[in-house]
Amino acid sequence: MGRHSGNSQIFTGIGFTAFFGFLAIWLHNPFIAIPLFFAGILPIMKGIDRRISSRPTQRIDKPRRETQPKPLSGDEQERLILKCAKENGGVLTPALAAVETELTITTASKILESMAQRGYASMEIRANGGIEYHFSDFK
To pair with 51 at 20 to 30 A between CA atoms, which of 57, 62, 70, 123? Predict the structure, then answer.
């Protein structure tokens, strides 16, 4: 029976079940249920199992790892800082820039300092010692 497909086992089981079922009813003998089970029901169950296990399995895609974003160029980093400054009324700190962009505080601080040196922003020190950068174009 090892070479038979699941379908042939199912049909063989149905045939034996029908034969022994008819025999049990005709002879009024409940003991015919034993060969009915082994010759009919078990092959049906095994055939169904073979049909299910022979189906091609569906491939379950694993979640893709997030790829690292490509590093931003200096111009793109400055554009992020300018956009952030515009959204915050022209006043920006390195920490605020880091929170609102994907830049680190160190990178945001260097870019803001560079922009202040080139005249695009003015650097002011707050009373608490923190540094703010003011962009007059966005006020």
Answer: 62
- Taking the mean position of all CA atoms in its chain, how far away is CA 105? 30
Q: Are 101 and 81 in contact (CB under 8 A)?
A: yes
* Residue 135 exposed, middle or buried by CB count within 10 Å (0-12, 13-18, 19+): buried
From the CB of residue 128, how many other CB atoms can be counted at a distance below 10 Å? 5
Strand partners, 122: 134
pLDDT band of 1, cuts 50, 70, 90:
very low
Token pair belonging to 104 = 């680190």
Enclosing H/E stretch for 138: none
Q: Are the C-beta atoms of residues 131 and 94 closer than 8 Å to each other? A: yes
Say if residues 46 and 58 touch (Cβ distance below 8 Å). no
The answer to pTM > 0.70 is: no
Quick check: 88 and 135 in contact, CB under 8 A? no
